[in-house]
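Hey,
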Amino acid sequence: MLNPPINFIFVGGFYFAYVRFNNFLNYFMNAYTSPSTFYETIEPCSVFEPLYKLVKFFEKNGVKMYCVTGIQFSFNIKAKEAFVHNHYSDKIEVISTNSQKSKVEAIKIISKLNRCNLNEILFVDDLEENITRFKDMGVKALLPNEVDILSKDL
């Protein structure tokens, strides 16, 4: 069973099951003009149940949570925020870094803002290279299948 310390931070990329969209302009226009329904109607995404359980566990235990996304074009940031808030928790702060590599700097900033050590952060991401980067920094980092194993104990 997880027992997070007071200053434990949870950060997730909140990856979605993306569907390739051929029309770049329409894609981002739809995301910008219909953020509250974009990931339900235009680019349907589903909630990852083990991550949902983990988020609810952390929410119940007062853990500060962030969604750090590497999206490179911010027209869909409100759509991502709406999906995360509607389907996971409105207590998750959504931050865009504009690249996957910039997530490292975001973690350092989050650590300083919350006055915690890097080893007090749990980061979930579906990209193996991000997991390797964070583990090399001393951050606890998991792939989604590892969250599945972890969430069974919650």
